[in-house]
Specification:
Length: 227
């Protein structure tokens, strides 16, 4: 007896598998679900904010006037505080959003590394911003956000401790930058070398198409399994 089963959870065209005689057929242009629009938006907003924060920090070290340095510091802190808020919102959205699984044929070591890097990125995004804000407060600086809002100084001035916090802030900035580069390199590897759907899942408007080798396969006993 032959029956037709619909595979749910796809975006675009549905996937149908015909179970009978051990044969399963899938549409060649089946689209698999990527990240939700909200998750994609928060991802790219965070990236833009990071580029802005790092650019402002690097420009502070250049030979600039006192007024320009003050403006760059304000901009750097503003980007940092916004990154903190965006990361908190992103984690809240992630709890209820669709998170596509990693490719079924991805080696266990790469799967573990991907999860570790993702977790560390979230931790460092929060830690890096908090260290900067705490160091600024301990230094006694008035923290202006985008030139109009000011954060209250909730910590006593301790410039020795502030200097240590700023040193840790600088080290975590380098670690975050390294992880960011590793994250980008991994995305490009998945897209151009493995040619899977990982990077496409985070690109707005780009469909995630099912690779033939990830489709259910026929077993000798007439059943089927996922690779």
């Amino acid at each position: 007896m032959e029956s037709t089963n619909k595979v749910n959870g796809t975006a675009g065209k549905s996937v149908y598998g015909k179970v009978g005689g051990g044969q399963i057929t899938l549409s060649a242009d089946t689209q698999m679900p990527g990240f939700t629009g909200a998750m994609q938006a928060m991802h790219w907003i965070t990236m833009v904010l990071l580029l802005g924060a790092y650019s402002a920090a690097w420009m502070i070290d250049a030979d600039t006037s006192s007024a320009e340095t003050e403006w760059l510091v304000m901009l750097h802190r503003s980007f940092g505080a916004t990154i903190l808020l965006a990361t908190g919102l992103r984690l809240a959205i992630r709890r209820h959003a669709r998170v596509p699984p990693l490719p079924a044929d991805l080696p266990a070591a790469q799967r573990l590394a991907a999860r570790a890097v993702t977790g560390l990125l979230y931790v460092l995004l929060i830690l890096q911003t908090l260290l900067g804000l705490i160091g600024s407060m301990l230094h006694g600086d008035r923290i202006a956000l985008f030139g109009s809002a000011f954060l209250p100084l909730t910590l006593p001035v301790d410039r020795v401790l502030a200097r240590q916090i700023f040193q840790l802030h600088g080290m975590t900035a380098l670690l975050l930058l390294a992880l960011f580069g590793l994250h980008v390199a991994a995305a490009l590897y998945h897209h151009f070398v493995r040619k899977d759907e990982v990077m496409a899942g985070m690109l707005p408007g780009m469909p995630c198409r099912l690779r033939p080798e990830l489709a259910p396969r026929r077993l000798p006993d007439g059943g089927s399994r996922q690779p």
